């Protein structure tokens, strides 16, 4: 199995691999806004809606049949820890965007999850191959406490931008704020600029 290494992306942002204010850990702490939601592989659905030419709905099997890849990424939590060299497998954001056909007036994206969590990012920050809808971590199914069956990975942002238990992507024509953004967290969340709060 080939792995695409994207751990060098910090160079694009002019910073060290470990962003300022972060400490490296070999553990993978669990942080969520609430409890871990239940899910059923027979009834689970993933939808793509909003400013697109083709709104999409996938079953679990259909989503897993989409073109996928494995990437080695770094993971930065806004609470101050970073985990290096995480191997995640899934579908890239641009793959989904191409299938949906993004309208010209789309400027922002809202991710929604099974636990009603939401988070937003500018479309330009999503249209990167490192933004991954992942169902595997280090060769095994993504643990439920880490967002399984499916979570978003945003290695160029703090991890609250990577929704756990994601089941919907909406392309927006204007900015809307997600769960933590409404509570004062940064819309842009660049770790190398320490954009933790608005």
UniProtKB/TrEMBL annotation:
This is Sulfite oxidase-like oxidoreductase. Residues 34-180 form the Oxidoreductase molybdopterin-binding domain. Residues 11-39 are annotated as: Disordered. CDD domains: arch_bact_SO_family_Moco. It comes from Haladaptatus pallidirubidus. InterPro entries: OxRdtase_Mopterin-bd_dom, OxRdtase_Mopterin-bd_sf. It holds the Pfam family Oxidored_molyb. PANTHER family: OXIDOREDUCTASE MOLYBDOPTERIN-BINDING DOMAIN-CONTAINING PROTEIN (PTHR43032:SF4), PROTEIN-METHIONINE-SULFOXIDE REDUCTASE (PTHR43032).
């Amino acid at each position: 199995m080939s792995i695409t290494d994207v751990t060098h992306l910090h160079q694009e942002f002019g910073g060290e691999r470990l962003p300022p204010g972060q400490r490296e850990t070999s553990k993978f702490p669990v942080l969520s806004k609430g409890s871990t939601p239940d899910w059923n592989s027979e009834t689970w659905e993933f939808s793509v809606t909003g400013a697109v030419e083709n709104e999409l709905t996938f079953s679990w099997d259909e989503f897993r049949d989409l073109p996928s890849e494995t990437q080695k990424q770094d993971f930065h939590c806004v609470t101050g820890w970073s985990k290096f060299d995480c191997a995640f497998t899934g579908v890239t954001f641009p793959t989904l965007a191409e299938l949906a056909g993004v309208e010209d007036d789309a400027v922002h994206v809202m991710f929604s999850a099974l636990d009603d969590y939401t988070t937003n990012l500018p479309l330009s920050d999503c249209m990167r191959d490192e933004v991954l809808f992942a169902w595997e971590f280090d060769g095994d199914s993504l643990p439920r406490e880490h967002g399984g069956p499916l979570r978003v990975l945003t290695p160029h942002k703090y991890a609250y931008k990577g929704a756990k238990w994601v089941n919907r992507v909406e392309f927006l024509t204007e900015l809307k704020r997600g769960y933590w953004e409404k509570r004062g967290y940064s819309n842009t969340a660049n770790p190398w600029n320490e954009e933790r709060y608005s």
